[in-house]
Every structure is written in structure tokens, then in C-alpha cells.
Design goal:
Largest sheet: 7 strands, mixed
CATH architecture: 3-Layer(aba) Sandwich
Number of domains: 1
Radius of gyration: 16 Å
CATH class: Alpha Beta
Order of helices and strands: EEEHHEHEEEH
Number of helices: 4
């Protein structure tokens, strides 16, 4: 059994055999199990737009109700993988080294970190993502930039390309099936 923490209700991890999803109603901060985990803690207070969120809504950068902290604790306690947007300030706050975009970077605590683009796994945008794994041998990933012809949308910000891609909005947070399977595979490989 794999416990998937901080997921969208009825999202990509629901209805899968051997997967125990924890959405907002179950409150993943209360997870005390021993299953390997895939953790997707909320990112709005840690992402590169966190200062804008703070200015607009008053939510302090990093103040996520200890979601990231408990997700990291559970990954280290049970083994598995934690996923967050690239440039997450949580990495620095919790002493995780900035990851490489071409390989896994070892962490002083014994875990590993890397950066991939979810566009390489079926996301309609590039969606640069940082991964932290613990208790596993880090698998090979599809490193590098997503080919332009695979990108059909953008997550936010101004259209800075000649293609003037449409903005995804809420769909940007969806985990592509192929990427979900990679993350579940990492959790299943916990020693």
C-alpha cells in the first residue's frame, strides 16, 4: 500500500488499487501510518509567487500550517517521494540542497533531490518540479527541457513566446498519469 498525502479530492490518485489517498478532508498532517508515501504538500506559500500571494491575500510566505514540514518528516520516516514546484523556498528553509537538472543530487540527510519538467511526462506545460526522495535508490528520470512541440499551454505569467500559449489556470496543478506512475513507482521501491 502507498499513502499519497495532500492530494486533490477525487484527483489522479483516487480509485487506484494499493493507493490510500489523503485529501484535505483527511488532513495529511495527521498521517501516522508506516506505508511508503508520495507527498504533494501545498505550494502556494513556498512557490516563486509566494510573495505575491502574501501581498494580495496576507498569507505569509512559508506559513502553510506545517504541511511541508510534516510531508518531509513522513517521507523521511516511511520512505518515498515529495514533489514541489521548482524554486520552492521550502528547499532552503529545510536545508535540502538545490537540485540538479541533469541528475540526482545527494542530500546530507541521506535523501536525494532533482529537478524534472512534468511536460516530459504528459503535462501540457513545462511545469518544472523539484523532487526529494528518501529510502530508495533514485531512478533515472527524463531530465532536460520539454520539447517545444509538446508544450500547448503555460502555467502563469505573461505570454513570453511567439506562440502566445493559453494559460492553464486550475488545470496546472493536475498530475499527469505518466508522472503519477513514476512517483508511485518510486514509493513502491522503498527498501
Amino acid at each position: 500500500m502507498i499513502s499519497v498525502l495532500y492530494v486533490e479530492t477525487s484527483g489522479a490518485y483516487y480509485g487506484l488499487e494499493g493507493v490510500d489517498p489523503w485529501d484535505i478532508h483527511r488532513d495529511a498532517r495527521k498521517y501516522t501510518g508506516t506505508n511508503p508515501v508520495v507527498a504533494h504538500p501545498p505550494c502556494a506559500r513556498w512557490c516563486r509567487f509566494a510573495k505575491a500571494v502574501e501581498a494580495r491575500f496576507g498569507y505569509r510566505q512559508g506559513d502553510d500550517g506545517k504541511c511541508f514540514e510534516t510531508a518531509l518528516f513522513d517521507v523521511r520516516r516511511c520512505g518515498g517521494v515529495l514533489e514541489h514546484p521548482a524554486s520552492s523556498s521550502a528547499w532552503k528553509a529545510f536545508g535540502i540542497p538545490r537540485p540538479s537538472t541533469t541528475e540526482w543530487t545527494p542530500c546530507p540527510c541521506g535523501g536525494w533531490t532533482t529537478q524534472v519538467e512534468q511536460g516530459m511526462y504528459g503535462h501540457p506545460a513545462r511545469k518544472s518540479t523539484w523532487l526529494y526522495v528518501y529510502g530508495v535508490t533514485p531512478p533515472p528520470m527524463r531530465w532536460g527541457k520539454t520539447p517545444s512541440d509538446r508544450i500547448v499551454a503555460r502555467i502563469g505569467g505573461p505570454a513570453i513566446t511567439k506562440r502566445n500559449l493559453p494559460r492553464l489556470g486550475a488545470a496546472s496543478s493536475k498530475t499527469p498519469v505518466e508522472f503519477r506512475e513514476v512517483l508511485l513507482g518510486i514509493a513502491r521501491s522503498v527498501k
